[in-house]
Fold this sequence. Notes:
Elements: E1 4-8, E2 20-27, H1 30-39, E3 45-48, E4 54-55, E5 60-67, E6 72-77, E7 81-87, H2 92-101, H3 119-123, E8 126-127, E9 130-131, E10 136-143, E11 149-153, H4 154-157, E12 174-184, H5 195-202, H6 211-225, E13 233-237, E14 243-245, H7 246-255, E15 261-263, E16 268-271, H8 273-279, E17 286-287, E18 290-292, E19 299-302, H9 308-326, E20 335-336
Parallel strand pairs: 2-5, 3-5, 4-20
Antiparallel strand pairs: 1-2, 6-7, 7-12, 8-9, 10-11, 10-12, 13-19, 14-16, 15-16, 17-18, 18-19
Helix pairs in contact: 5-6
Amino acid sequence: xxxxxxxxxxxxxxxxxxxxxxxxxxxxxxxxxxxxxxxxxxxxxxxxxxxxxxxxxxxxxxxxxxxxxxxxxxxxxxxxxxxxxxxxxxxxxxxxxxxxxxxxxxxxxxxxxxxxxxxxxxxxxxxxxxxxxxxxxxxxxxxxxxxxxxxxxxxxxxxxxxxxxxxxxxxxxxxxxxxxxxxxxxxxxxxxxxxxxxxxxxxxxxxxxxxxxxxxxxxxxxxxxxxxxxxxxxxxxxxxxxxxxxxxxxxxxxxxxxxxxxxxxxxxxxxxxxxxxxxxxxxxxxxxxxxxxxxxxxxxxxxxxxxxxxxxxxxxxxxxxxxxxxxxxxxxxxxxx
Length: 337
C-alpha cells in the first residue's frame, strides 16, 4: 500500500478528465483503509470506486481513497434463493457475469453497466426494468467517523429512482465495504418486457430465453447505443429521466404526440430524457472536445481534451434549453466534483 502525492485522476474516471489528487491511495483490505483513515484523519476525503459516475471539474484537495475491496462469497442458500456477497471493489459487470455462470438470477438485465459493486446501491443503478433494490438484501459500510462497521437493510438504504440514503442524508459519512444480493436459483423471473430486449432475443436461436441470453442481449443493445469509455470518455447516462404530473404530461403530449414516456405511479409519467434532448436538437452537438453523443443524446462525451468545467457547462446549457422548450427540469445523474 503506497500513498502517492499529486496523482493524476485521469486513468481513474471513465470521463478521462485531467485532475489531480493531493494524496492518492488504493486499498484492497479493510485494515489498510482503517490505517489510512487514521493516518490522514485531518485530510479532506473522497472515496473513489470505478470512477464511472463522477465528473471532475477541479483538482481534489486532500486524500482520494480508491476502494478495491475484493471477494465474492455465497452467504446462505435455499432451494430457491441464494445470498451472494461481493466486495465493493469488484467490477460490477464481471460480478453479474459470474452470477450468471452460477445460474443465479436477478441482475442479468444490469449487464455491462460500468463501475464497481460498491457504487451500485449508492446509485440504485437500473436498466431495462430492473433496479438494484429489486435484488438487494443488505450491505456493510464503514462509519468514517467512528470506524465501526454497520449493516444496512433495504429499508435503511431508502432506495428511490437513482437515489439512496448515501447520496443524501448520509453522503460522505460511510464507505461501503460489501453488498449482499438475494438471487434466484431456479424459476427465474425473466424481465423481457422492454422492446429492445424482445427484438434482440428474436434474433437468437431459442424461443426460451435464459439468464445468459438476456445478458447477451443487453450487452448488444448497450454496445450499439453507448460509447465505450475506453475509446470516448463518458459516464453513461448523464441525466435522470424526469417525472412529471399528469397535467404537464398532457400538455407536452398535445404538442409532441411522439413523446416517449412511461407510467411512474398514479397520475405521474416518466419522460425519456434522451428523447427530450434529441428533440431539442442537441444530439451530436459538439463544442471543442465536449459533446453530446451522436447515437445517444443522454450521454455527454469527452472527445479527448475537454475539461470538466466544459462538460459541466454543456450540461447546464442543455438543462436550460430543455426547461425553456418543454418546461421540464432535468437533473444530473452524474456526481459533480
